[in-house]
Structure formats: C-alpha cells, structure tokens
Design brief:
The protein is an alpha+beta fold. 40% of the residues lie in helices and 29% in strands. It is built from three helices and three strands. A hairpin with a 6-residue loop joins strand 1 and strand 2. The longest helix has 14 residues. It starts with a strand and ends in a 6-residue tail after the last helix.
C-alpha cells in the first residue's frame, strides 16, 4: 500500500510566517515515518523552523512509532 502525507514546514525566521507544504510518498507507514524523521533531522538545529505532519492523527501515530528504540535507530537516529 502506498502512503502519502503532506508535511508542513513553518519558517518563523522572517517577519511573515512562511509555510511550505511537501508531500512524502512511501510504501508503508514505517517507510513514511522514516522519511519524515529524516526530514525533521535536516531542520533539527534550525530554531525558527518547525516540521510537522498535516494530519494530527498521523502525527500522534508517529510520536508512538518514534518512541520505539529500534524504529528510532533504523530511521537514522544517533542516540545523542
């Protein structure tokens, strides 16, 4: 099953709030959450940027998924 999700990137650095929407396509939820994790990692140290899933239910599922240690490390987490 192909999973698609909209990602919202909020940039608070400028006076006006910039919002960018991106679509991630994946084979399943594990793949989707891995791609989302990797996208969030790109902006990890950008204090003015927030990356979120557009669907609140999926955001909740992601938070539960990333808490599992094996998911975190397989997605590329470094354990710092």
């Amino acid at each position: 099953m192909i999973e698609t999700v909209a990602i919202t990137i909020h940039d608070y650095h400028t006076d006006n709030r910039n919002e960018e929407r991106t679509v991630l396509v994946a084979n399943d939820k594990d793949d989707l959450f891995t791609k989302f994790f990797q996208m969030k990692q790109r902006y990890l140290y950008c204090n003015s940027v927030k990356v979120s899933l557009s669907d609140p239910n999926l955001e909740s599922s992601y938070k539960d998924w990333i808490k599992v240690e094996s998911n975190y490390y397989s997605a590329g987490g470094d354990g710092w």
